[in-house]
Amino acid sequence: MINITEKQEGELIILELSGRLDSNTYLQAEAVFTKYFQHQDLHHMLVDCSSLGFLSSSGIRIFLMAMKKYKAKGGRFVLCGLSEDIHELFEFSGLLPFLEIWDDQHTALNKLRTAK
Q1: Distances 27 to 16, 83, 100 between C-alpha atoms, Å
Q2: Which residues contact 74 (CB under 8 A, 6 or more apart)?
């Protein structure tokens, strides 16, 4: 099961994930992520994973798709609150250099706000 809390702050969408992002919850999560790709006024996406207990390759695919979409429109895709296991998953897959990751939502929001 996955729960996704959605908040908008100006041109930023914040998604807070909790539970598991795997093959069973992939379609639900993908629907939430993709609905924001169409919004021309949303240039950045912050995904808070501090309550995400598990991430499968299906979930990684959603993150990579979102990163590509936001970078293509000149925005940023930011992750925060990664558990050690999820951080290692990105490290072992060779994706860390391509992702913007911060320790927590507060830090990530400050970085997004000061970069404008």
Answers
A1: 17, 23, 24
A2: 43
3-state secondary structure of 44: strand
Cα 45 from Cα 11, distance rounded (Å): 9
If you average pLDDT over residues 40-46, what whole number do you get?
93
Task: Give the integer Cα–Cα distance in Å for 34 and 86.
Answer: 22
Report d(CA 10, CA 58) in Å as an integer: 29
Could you give the CA distance from residue 40 to residue 103 in angstroms, rounded to a whole number? 28
User: Which regions of the chain does DSSP assign to beta strands (E)?
Assistant: 2-9, 12-21, 44-55, 76-80, 100-102
**C-alpha to C-alpha distance for 67 and 45, rounded to whole angstroms:** 8
Q: In the 8-state DSSP scheme, what is residue 18?
A: E
Question: Averaged over 36-54, what is the pLDDT?
Answer: 94
Place of tokens 């293509």: 72
The model carries a pTM of 0.95
- Neighbouring C-beta atoms of residue 53, cutoff 10 Å: 16
